[in-house]
Amino acid sequence: EVVEEAAEEEETAAAAAAVPVAAKHEKDYYPYILIGAGTASFAAMEAIREKDPSAAILIIGNEEIGPYMRPPLSKEMWFNKDEETTKNLSFKDWQGKERNIVLHGKETIQSIDQEALEKIESAESGVKLLTGATVEDLNIAEQSLTLNNGKVLKYGKVLLATGGVPKTLPVLKGAGEGKVTTFRSVEDFKKLHSLVESANKKIVIVGGGFLGSELAVAVSHYGKEKNVKVTQIFPEDGNMGLVFPRYLSKWTTSQVEQEGVNVKPNSRVASTKAVGEQVELTLENGEKVLADHVVVAVGIEANVELAKKAGLELDEQRGGVIVNAELQARRNVYCAGDMTSFHDVTLGRRRVEHYDNAILGGRVAGQNMASDKLHKPYKHQSMFWSDLGPHIGYEAVGILDSKLSTVSIWTKKPTVAAADAAAAEEVTKEESAAADKKDEGKRERATATPLPAEAVKVEDKEKYNKGLVLYLKDKKIVGLLMWNNFGKVEDARKILGQVYDTEKVEALVKPFGIHEE
Ligand code: FAD
Ligand code: NAD
Ligand code: NAD
User: Fold this and answer.
1) DSSP H helices in 163-284
2) Pairing mode of beta strands 467-473, 383-387
């Protein structure tokens, strides 16, 4: 009986705490607070305003400027023709249009500092952006949060969009103060850019994923005239080795090399030490590489520090905060962007670290925050894209993991495509290793049944002009990579989640116009 009583008491206390503590117009109360002034918060802000144009929204960010696009920082910004454009944080997009990385105009967002925030008596309609402030605590029962200066704010609905924190490697610690940096923010861009402006610099990039590969190409291009040398070191077989099938990753490496990058695949840093003003990196094979500066691009960790302290449920496997398909972690608490492990109703639980996911997820979170009745699931499949030098541009949807079996269709020679070697091993156990090759004059097709390893060999000079790679899991198509083939994302979305059938592949890939010039 005693136990029962205690339980009842606890329940009553919890129920009382769940009642919103603040009323409209109360000082330091905001109906919507968005934590993290990044891409996802920006998209959520726009979505809230569409549903509730007079909403009072407070965005809190700990960078010096408000929401901006990170993608150009490792691509377009290094291809600017004049320094003025770069200084203004502008870039030329792929259509030749000059744009700025900052996502908002002054008319939408009013920037304020902590002093100005203190003076606000009652939240008015409109968007306020508090920069240079960190949210240190979130009290879900009280619907309040605490800033780094101790200030407490109350919210009606809150979005956590704290993004990711770049990882680093302990082995790089010996390099000396300031010689090894990560790359995420506009500040990081400015520092690296000014470093590369002086001639004869040796830059080492550690990491062969999205960031390491894009940055290697971009910095090498920018530094060409200044005799800047870029070396890229990573453990995989080729650039983007965790994403592209093996043959394509290897070919991509040959293209990155053509951009002047000294690529060292199958390599790990074993130790580092300062040698005068430089850093000496010793690789596991004993080779030594000298650098004026090292950029480490070995992935990010979802930034869940705040969420963890607040007692939100974390995804131990993928990282990130666990939310449902409506991007809700708890009542009145939503998450979007890089730090979110969400339930994708087509592909299962996922965490995605791409721009469009932050935009689309941020939108859905914002829509749900602005309407208690909407309950909208995040179903729209986000896309991502990249380019690596003049011959490689791609768009993709779904899960791209080089461990999966793949089926590739290419326009021109070399026309042989294959599953990744690891996947090949896995599948060969059940299926015959004989490839289902079908010569149709213009091309050959590989199917989910992998080709023998020798068939994967690709000659460096040959090009993959235009193609499509399907990623398969449990016989279902879970990812599509459109290679030098833009504007097909909608078609790809339709195919995602479908069962792969060798017999029907012709019809399946028809919309992608692989054979059209
Ligand atoms: P972010 O944009 O990282 O925003 C989170 C913000 O929250 C940060 O400003 C952070 O400082 C702030 N913050 C964190 N904690 C707190 C706190 N407690 N209080 C206050 N503020 C806090 N994706 C693509 O799809 N295509 C690309 O080409 C591409 N290129 C990229 C290039 C670079 C150089 C980088 C770094 C990333 C790139 N990405 C790309 C990834 C893409 O930028 C991210 O997926 C996207 O920015 C995620 O948005 P977000 O809002 O979740 O997080
Ligand atoms: P990533 O996850 O794409 O790549 C991680 C890389 O780290 C691996 O490919 C591997 O080469 C490397 N690595 C891991 N352990 C290593 C070790 N011990 N030594 C050397 N290398 C090691 O992450 P990233 O490339 O750092 O990118 C950072 C973030 O920015 C990611 O969220 C990414 O999605 C995002 N981003 C996306 C794009 C795009 O979509 N086009 C472009 C740039 C950045
Ligand atoms: P935008 O700002 O108009 O956004 C268009 C869409 O792409 C949005 O949904 C946005 O969220 C998303 N997006 C923008 N940049 C992204 C990135 N780096 N990674 C993932 N998603 C991104 O963008 P924009 O600059 O006008 O154009 C981006 C689009 O253009 C992408 O679809 C890209 O693939 C395409 N593109 C086409 C060519 C080509 O030759 N046809 C070349 C490069 C890029």
Assistant:
1) 186-197, 210-223, 246-258
2) unpaired
Q: What pTM does this model have?
A: 0.89
Contact 239, 259 (CB under 8 A): no
Residues 346-394: tens digit of each pLDDT: 999 999 999 999 999 999 999 999 999 999 999 999 999 999 988 899 9
Q: Which two tokens stand for residue 406?
A: 């793949």
Tokens, residue 172: 């790089």
Q: Ligand 1: list residues with CB < 6 Å.
A: 35-41, 60-63, 70-71, 73-74, 134-135, 161-164, 183-184, 211, 303, 306, 337-338, 353-356, 358, 384, 386
In order of 79, 83, 138, 418, 420, the CA distances from 457 in angstroms are: 33, 42, 54, 10, 12
Token code pair at residue 331: 């009542």
Dihedral sign computed on CA atoms, order 498, 504, 510, 512:
positive
Q: Read out DSSP for 403-431?
A: TSEEEEEESSSS------HHHHHHHHTTS
Query: Ligand 2 pocket, 211 CB below 6 A?
Result: yes
Residue to mutate (ligand 3; options 97, 383, 484; most atoms within 8 A of CB): 383
Q: Which atom of ligand 1 is nearest to the CA of 74?
A: 34
Ligand index nearest the alpha carbon of residue 401: 2
* C-alpha to C-alpha distance for 18 and 141, rounded to whole angstroms: 6
Judge whether 183 and 74 are in contact, CB under 8 Å. Answer: yes
